[in-house]
Amino acid sequence: MKKLFIIMVSILISSSAYALPQIGKAAPDFSVKDAQGKVHTLADYKGKKLVLEWYNKDCPFVKKHYESKNMQQLQKEVRAKGYAWLSIVSSASGKQGHQSPTDALKNQQATHSNAMAVLLDEAGTMGKAYGAKTTPHMFIIDEAGLVQYQGAIDSNDSANPATIAGAENYVRSAVTSLQ
Fold first, then answer.
1. Distance of alpha carbon 108 from alpha carbon 113, whole angstroms
2. Could you tell me if residue 69 is left (phi over 0), alpha (psi between -120 and 50 degrees) or otherwise beta?
3. What is the spatial distance between Cα 74 and Cα 167, in angstroms, rounded to a whole number?
4. Rg (CA), the chain
5. Residue pLDDT, tens place only, 99-125
6. For residues 30-46, b (16+ Cβ closer than 10 Å) or e, as one string?
7. Cα(173)–Cα(142) distance, rounded to whole angstroms?
8. 54 contacts 135 by C-beta, under 8 angstroms
9. How do 138-141 and 49-54 pair as beta strands?
10. Helix 70-80 and helix 60-67: axis angle, to 10°?
């Protein structure tokens, strides 16, 4: 199973117009404030497994997974396995999906998100370091700070929530294979 993810990610990297962190290599460092004003860094999660989820409240694919409660269930499952989970908003002020700290906290509560925090990457520094161009773009980082997965949440590229049941959830599969 792990080989499948590595092959899939290698294909994505080679066909991409931007560089992505490589599987098995160090995750890019970051220092970003969350919606409550607390700074989060990659070093804060050393020794812990971490999921990064790029989030845009206006994205139809994000809506698919949040309105169906699929993302919240996945967050709950993965966190129960000892992972930390951070949602990242890399939308600049005035751009689609941008959220003020207050709006991000209200949105997190309204969607019943199980993410530990919502990071507000308005300058896009973290998003650029990770090559995050779409939402939800997912990354799994192991205890040593190495990228173990990056890519889509699942195998279906439709925004229709009815497709969730028949799709392979890549994040769930990756977490299972990394146990």
1. 5
2. left
3. 14
4. 15
5. 899 999 999 999 999 999 999 999 999
6. bebebbeeeebebeebe
7. 15
8. yes
9. antiparallel
10. 70
Amino acid identity for residue 178 in this structure: L
Other CB atoms within 10 A of residue 81 CB: 11
CB atoms within 10 A of CB 160: 10
C-alpha–C-alpha distance, residues 67 and 136, integer Å:
14
For residue range 25-47, list pLDDT tens digits in order. 999 999 999 999 999 999 999 99
For 61, the 3-state DSSP assignment is: helix
Cβ–Cβ under 8 Å, residues 148 and 129: no
Select from 166, 147, 150, 168 the least CA-distant residue to 53: 150
Q: 93: which 2 tokens?
A: 């002020």
> Is residue 34 within 8 Å of residue 120, measured between CB atoms?
yes
Q: Which of 55, 84, 75 is nearest to 142 (CA)?
A: 84
Could you give the 3-state DSSP secondary structure of residue 28? Answer: coil
70: left (phi over 0), alpha (psi -120 to 50) or beta: alpha
Burial of 96 (0-12, 13-18, 19+ CB in 10 A): exposed
User: Which residue reads 């990770």 in tokens?
Assistant: 130
Whether residue 84 contacts residue 51, with contact meaning beta carbons closer than 8 Å, is answered with yes
> Looking at the whole model, is its pTM more than 0.85?
yes
Cβ(149)–Cβ(138) below 8 Å: yes
